[in-house]
Amino acid sequence: MKTLLPLAETIAQRLIARRETIAIAESSTGGLVSAALLAVPGASAYFLGGAVVYTKASRAALLGIGDAEMQGLRPATEAYALLLARRMRERHGAVWGFGETGATGPTGNRYGDPAGHTCMAVAGPVERATTLRTGSAERLANMDAFAKRALELLIEAIPAA
Questions:
Q1: Which tens digit of pLDDT belongs to each residue from 55-84?
Q2: In sequence order, which residues have a C-beta less than 8 Å from that of residue 72 and are 6 or more positions away?
Q3: What pLDDT is attached to residue 123?
Q4: How many Å apart are CA 91 and CA 49, to the nearest integer?
Q5: For 25-41, what is each residue's pLDDT tens digit?
Q6: Strands 47-52, 128-133: parallel, antiparallel or unpaired by DSSP?
């Protein structure tokens, strides 16, 4: 958390200065992105909500994304991360939405992605998506690396006031 906090503080400052809000959907980061943003005092000014969307059941229950919307789409892709980000933004009425999905390890996922693979996206006034592959099978190290890159992506997307 100590390495994530300075990044989260930058995001918080920008969101507060711009009077904007964010909602987070994460999977492989297990809530670390939300935790970092919530660790900043005053988070209630910009953080509307977050969800760990780790399974098909949680995707349906928390985001209302069913089989029909998943036709031609698979998890652990930039397109799916963008769907998560857009849905969180819509459902929370936030200016910004964020989505993350991947495989932390020690093995890859059932879709053929190796451990250390994550896709993440930001939806808002601008949209961005990216893929990170750490080349590592170390679960905790990957979670940290994924969360750090997620916060960096938010800094890249959300401009200073």
A1: 999 999 999 999 999 999 999 999 999 999
A2: none
A3: 98
A4: 10
A5: 999 999 999 999 999 99
A6: unpaired
